[in-house]
Amino acid sequence: MAELTLVEAVNRALAHELEHDPAVLLLGEDIGVNGGVFRATLGLQQRFGSARVIDTPLAEAAIAGVAVGMAAMGLKPVMEIQFSGFIYPAMDQLINHASRLRNRTRGRLTCPMVLRAPNGAGIHAPEHHSESPEAMLAHTPGLRVVIPSSPARAYGLLLAAIRDPDPVVFLEPTRLYRLFKQEVIDDGEPLPLDTCFVSREGRDVTLVAWGGMLHEALAAAESLASEGVDCEVVDVATLKPLDAETILRSVEKTGRCVIVQEAARTAGFGAEIAAIIAERGLYFLQAPVRRVTGYDVVMPLARLEGQYLPSVARIADAVRKTMEAE
Amino acid sequence: MPAADKNAKLADVAGAAEGAQAEGGILAFTREQELSAYRAMLLIRRFEEKAGQMYGMGLVGGFCHLYIGQEAVVVGARMSAKSTDQFITGYRDHGHMLACGMEPRRVMAELTGRRGGYSKGKGGSMHMFSREKNFYGGHGIVGAPAPLGVGLAFADLYRGDGSVSLTFFGDGAANQGQVYESFNMAELWKLPIVFIVENNRYAMGTSVERSSAQSNFSMRGTAFNIPGRQIDGMDVRAVAAAAREALDWCRAGKGPFLIEAQTYRYRGHSMSDPAKYRSKEEVQRVREEHDPIEQVRARLLAGGIGEDELKQIDAAVRRIVSEAADFATNDPEPDPSELWTDVVL
Ligand SMILES: Cc1ncc(C[n+]2csc(CCOP(=O)(O)OP(=O)(O)O)c2C)c(N)n1
Ligand SMILES: [Mg+2]
Q1: What is the rounded CA–CA span in Å between residue A10 and residue B278?
Q2: Nearest CA in chain B to A33
Q3: B188-247: per-residue pLDDT in tens?
Q4: How far apart are CA B15 and CA B176, in angstroms?
Q5: What is the DSSP string of B29-61?
Q6: How many angstroms separate the CA atoms of A173 and A119, rounded?
């Protein structure tokens, strides 16, 4: 057992799969000699060779397309895109090919590939270095979208993603890469995909979050506890397919829900969760569902970043308003 | 103009190479032209050194990609261009902006995220523009400036005013597919565009050898019938000569032209770069044997210019840079309400 950061846990999961499954290979820009921008693949090329840990030229669209071809042949490519904002050039291959291979071949082929990318704010850089494009991806039929919130969940969910027969977009919260360490048992045990985790139990209100924002939600829950408000916190973890049952069960218990999302507000993934609660859990509610989100603006440079990101204070405020409503 | 005034201006070198004789792949610069090149390159060098220091002090937010070592590329190109031509590049853009005559203080203030920056302190190092100076960015997506530059060139041809789009990108960017889609359109429509590949041998930590099947980038347009020149991008006279040839080609209506400027970046890719992919000796060798600024300095001294005059230039450059740094340190940060400006809501 070892105390690992999230980025180290990713590294262990990759190493585990490379070691146990010859079909697994990694490809991406600067992942070999350099070990990746965030060093997620550090040492893996030395250990597994450059035929399996492949430094590619700068070419996101082709990297994604090549991965689809590899996957069609039964290989299990895990591609790294340096920042989630650079997924956009690969979107065509992801949406038009990766996500549809199974359906288009009527099940004769599947596409067991994983696209990993750092996601969200965290390095004080604007725009494409701090994007949160998960809703666009979750909107695409045929893709799984997974966002871990801790080292242990990153390890277990990444194992499951690599073993899954369908394409998985695995978005790693940049902000959490080295934020804290956690016990991770490197035993090859996956965590279930398509499952939400209850990260904190509570009676009064359900906070739903994923990735980096889970920690803001937990911190808000902590501070609200001193005011006598008992929050339950749900870590969505797999956005698509969504485990609505876990969220609905929690809302049934608490009767109140605040959804926290770092991405811009309009048509964000929080809206999907709110819609599901409206469809299937309306009568559980004692107050309207609230969302705390990023704004509908382009992610700015460092000095306005704090202004943009949902803060503990903004979340706590939303919870208080929810508690006041009758 | 007295020397002191020129030193104080130091900015745009557009057209400075005019009249220089072409011989043996270079433009034979007059002393005045050598001095223009020297001032402009030195300003970029000192500006970048200061930007690096400010980054180290935690004053610069986000990324900071320094142009040190590559100064001759943009300065040589600018000296043969007109101020009405458009310049567009990627994220290693500070040098391009200074060569286009953009204000050092406003570039620096953008790095530090201040109100007076070219993007109001919201864009940072990679994203600045100036319509007045025909500088169209400043783009963070590697390879994307190529088609954008083709669009600029399309507008040039459409308006028929004889302007040319100078579109810069790196050796790494040259492997992006959209670059070739751009080459095809540019030649098909005979657009006035000069593609300039700044081959500094590395894309982040990946060397050209490890990423490129055809590492002679000047031949990358061959399949589209785009003429190419591979040149010593550390010699500002060679860049100016190739740029003049390319610009004449474009202005004569013959379509695009490709230049591969072989150059080198001295610093890391960005400010956080472990530099495990190359040796210290390699960097040292280029600095000692090929430095673009030292070459001009040596020629000026050999031509009889006094150390004094060069010292005056040095002092003037340092003044501009330290004034820029002061401004960038003391200018106020953007108001929080700026989050909601210049965006459709
Ligand atoms: C589409 C895209 N992919 C990846 C990156 C990350 N990235 C930024 S610069 C760079 C290397 C580019 O190298 P090159 O084109 O040679 O230019 P240089 O940095 O040497 O000036 C990479 C991979 C990016 N900004 N955009
Ligand atoms: Mg390069």
Answers
A1: 27
A2: B277
A3: 999 999 999 999 999 999 999 999 999 999 999 999 999 999 999 999 999 999 999 999
A4: 32
A5: --HHHHHHHHHHHHHHHHHHHHHHHHHHTT-S-
A6: 5
Domains and CATH numbers, chain A: 2-184 (3.40.50.970), 197-324 (3.40.50.920)
What residues does ligand 1 touch, defined as CB less than 6 Å away?
A: A 29, 58, 60, 82, 86, 89; B 92, 140-142, 170-173, 200, 202-204, 269
Question: φ, ψ for residue B264 (rounded to 5)?
Answer: -160, 135
Residues in chain B: 345
Q: What is the model's pTM?
A: 0.96
Q: Rounded to a whole number, what is the largest CA-CA distance in chain A?
A: 62
Please choose, from the candidates B86, B47, B42, B43, the residue with its C-alpha nearest in 3D space to the C-alpha of residue B64.
B47
Distances (CA, A) of A206 to A65, A202, A218, B201, B235: 40, 8, 11, 53, 65
Alpha carbons within 13 angstroms on the beta-carbon side of residue B63 total 24
CATH for the stretch B3-332: 3.40.50.970
Cα A236 → chain centroid: 9
**Distant-in-sequence contacts of B144-149, Cβ < 8 A, 24+ apart:** B144/B90, B144/B178, B145/B88, B145/B89, B145/B90, B145/B169, B145/B173, B146/B173, B146/B176, B146/B178, B146/B179, B146/B182, B146/B183, B146/B195, B147/B178, B147/B181, B147/B182, B147/B185, B148/B88, B149/B86, B149/B88, B149/B182, B149/B193, B149/B195
Q: Which atom of ligand 1 is nearest to the CA of B204?
A: 11
Kindly state the tokens that stand for A29: 């820009």
Measured between alpha carbons, how far is residue A167 from residues A9, A137, B314 in Å?
21, 11, 57
Flag the least confident range among A132-146, A294-308, B252-266, B300-314: A294-308
Active site residue A20: no
pLDDT band at B1 (very low <50, low <70, confident <90, very high): very low
